[in-house]
Structures are given as C-alpha cells and as structure tokens.
Amino acid sequence: MFEIGDYIIYGNHGVCRVEDIGGLNIPGVDQSKKCYTLQPVFSKSSTLYTPVDNDKVVMRRVISNEEALELIEQIPDISLIGVENDKQREEAYKEALRHHDCKDWIKIIKTLYVRKQERLSQGKKLTFTDEKYLNIAKDCLFGELSIAMDMNREEVEDLISERLEEVNLV
To answer: Where is the CarD-like/TRCF RNAP-interacting domain (predicted)?
Structure first.
C-alpha cells in the first residue's frame, strides 16, 4: 500500500502524487472502500480516485534516484524493438507501453531514434504513428525520471539525449 505523499505511476496517467487515502464522500459510492486520491503531477487540473486494491490498472512506485541512474547507465545495453512490419511494430509499441516500465520506454525511444535516422537518410520523416509512440514513451520516461532524480523534464531529456549520443543513436 502506498502512503500519502508517495509518487506513483498510475496507468496511462503517468506520475501521480498520493494526496489522500480513505473513503470517498460521493453519493452512491461505498464509503467503507478505501481509495487513493491521486494528483497527476504534470496535469494539475485533474484529480483521480482509485480503489486501493485496484488490480486493473498498473500502480507502482516511481523508481528511486539510484535505480534511475542505473537505468541511464544501462541504456547502451537495452535492446531495440526488432520488427520491420508497420502493423506489427505498432503492436510492439503498444505492448511495451502496457507494462509501464522504464526499460520498455527506453526500448521504444532507442528504436525510434534509429528509425528516425534511417528515414532521414532516405529523405523521409518519421511516420505519424512512430512520432506518436516516441512522444508517449518520452513523456512517460522523462516524467518518471524527473521525479526520481529531482530534476525538471528538460534536464532529464538533455541527459537522456546525451546518453543516446554517446551510443551513436542521436
């Protein structure tokens, strides 16, 4: 169980802060059922409510600073998504995103950076689908790492870009 003040990943909503734990004072809702009140960190205009025992949506702690640093060190060793068929590639991106795992986000980012370079060398841009999944993966990864490392998202993006340059992916 999470505590008030914890930062967690809550499904596709990304990083959220646990604001409260308890029953909801909403008509028609069982007040004895414990729920988390979550505040998405990068979308202050919304508040989310979810049962403490919700097993339908991924809920996990944000990785620690140490885990974030280790992850950044591992970037050269994280594999690419090796699918050539556009339809299968999109399915592979969706599957990677379903896990809400930093390594999977890096796989997508690395794969699409390589793909972008290949397409640019042919005088082409990334496809709309590739661009969409690249942005989702970057958003998820940079959001989590910014909280884990107590940095702003732009600093995290610069750090990851530098690391990708070191392994000749940018």
So the answer is: 1-113
